[in-house]
Amino acid sequence: MPQAIRFHQTGGPEVLQWESIEVPPPAAGEAQVRHHAVGLNYIDTYHRTGLYPVPLPSGIGLEGAGVVEAVGEGVSDLAPGDRVAYAGGPLGAYAQLRNMPADRLVKLPEALSFEQGAAMMLQGLTAQYLLRRTYRVQPGDTILIHAAAGGVGLIVCQWAKALGATVIGTVGSDEKAALARAHGCDHPIVYTREKFAERVREITGGAGVPVVYDSIGADTFMDSLSCLRPLGTMVLFGAASGPVPPFDIGLLAKMGSLFLTRPTLFTYTARREDLLAMAGELFDAVISGKVKIEVNQRYPLADAAQAHRDLEARRTTGSTILLP
Question: Domain named Enoyl reductase (ER): which ranges (predicted)?
Answer without folding.
Answer: 11-322
